[in-house]
Amino acid sequence: MGQAAKIGVLVMSYGTPTSLDNVEAYYTHIRRGHPPSEEQLKELVERYEAIVGGVFPLRENTNAQVAALQARLDELAPGRYQCFQGLKHAEPFIEDGVEQIAKAGIAQAVGIVLAPHYSVMSVGGYIKRAQAKAAELGVKMCFVHSYHLHPKLISALTDRVNSVHEKLLPLSGDKPVKVLFSAHSLPEKIRELGDPYEQQLLNTSEAIAEAAEIEDWEFTWQSAGRTSEPWLGPDILDTMEQVAEQGYKAILSAPIGFVSDHLEVLYDLDIEAKAKAKELGIAFERIEMLNTDPLYMDTLAESVMTVREQLGKE
Predict the structure, then answer these.
(1) pLDDT given for residue 311 in this prediction
(2) Domains of the chain, each with CATH number or no CATH
(3) pTM of the full predicted structure?
């Protein structure tokens, strides 16, 4: 099969610094060229140090996901697909990934983001950048916009919720275990845009709760940006306080908006939320992240192959 007939797969993700030395450059990019203050940088570096303890495995999580997706696509359609990475805030940037596709002589590609839920401010931004570069280089591209209700994604997340629920049950006392589904907050203005992000997250939560037969759950937000505009709330730490006041003794954290171990999970939940739970005197456990879970790889591969049909048959 010639390269022209091969389908490129641009796997897009937020990106993470490659080492502690890169934290400043990474956050400068997030802040559109404005470097963080000395105080902000110190706090950020300390957060990374707290979770990685001197080694820096975060970038490897994305590399492993892309390699696992490639392996799954090779099983399903040998020699048909070639994966490339494109990151929002770190190298290789989204544009670099599209350029690599063009340089490999591949004329058609599918873009997918390592985030199941669509927002014009998140996934929409990735797609816009990829589309612009693809148009410039003459690569024909189409995109997976979301896969938040893919049966295999729901199945993988349900399994995780069930196993933690079982562990927490003996600690919950006379109240049920409270399940808190969460995702990265976005500025409140997305509601005015009729953005589907919030509804898609609720749909995923409902599907998992139904499959796991859990009635006592809430959706909450986490990891809001520190800007002057209002962000979607309540924050998980505030929700945890309310849950404790209501007499619950155990919280199951299900950060369904995230697909791998990184700062928002390893720091915001494993350190901050756990410290809050200790202060409140309640048990707190989170589900394992999807990372390279076979069901998640199937979700990505099947989503890519479904959308690939839009490119037309050769």
Answers:
(1) 74
(2) 3-147+293-311 (3.40.50.1400), 151-286 (3.40.50.1400)
(3) 0.96
